[in-house]
Structure formats: C-alpha cells, structure tokens
Automatic annotation (TrEMBL):
GO terms for cellular component: mitochondrial matrix. This is NADH dehydrogenase [ubiquinone] 1 alpha subcomplex assembly factor 8. It comes from the Eukaryota. It comes from Cricetulus griseus. GO terms for biological process: mitochondrial respiratory chain complex I assembly.
C-alpha cells in the first residue's frame, strides 16, 4: 500500500467512527440543536456565537469521546 493509501485508510476509519462519537454526546447535541432551532424559529435571529456555550460543550464532549476511542484502539 502506498503512503497516500495509508493516509486515506486512516481518514476513512475516522469517518466511520464519527457516528459512534456523536452518539456518545447525545445530550450535548440535543442542547445545541434546541438552541439553534429556537434561534431560527419565526422571529428568532441566528447569529454567530449565539449558541457558543452549547457548541463548546458538544465540541468538548466529541473530542473526549474521540480521544477515549483512540486510546481504546491501541
């Protein structure tokens, strides 16, 4: 396998793991989704960083889930 093929293999495996990592953060994803939905409801106005706290919680959870999975696979 070429070096380029090895890189794409790692990328594909990470993409396949994405749904599992996201599923581990259901509460955070729901909170972020509710915030965005409320902001885009009639009369609402979505703007940058409006749901920043919820997004940061989701990002942190996702990063922790990915790290945990990465440590478990070695």
């Amino acid at each position: 396998m070429s070096a380029n093929g090895a890189v794409w293999g790692r990328v594909r495996s990470r993409l396949r793991a994405f749904p599992d990592h996201l599923a581990a953060c259901g509460a955070e994803a729901s909170a972020y989704g509710r915030c965005v939905q409320a902001s885009t409801a009639p009369g609402g106005r979505l703007s940058q960083d409006l749901c920043g706290r919820e997004f940061e919680a989701l990002r942190s959870c996702f990063a922790a889930a990915a790290k945990k999975a990465l440590r478990g696979s070695t």
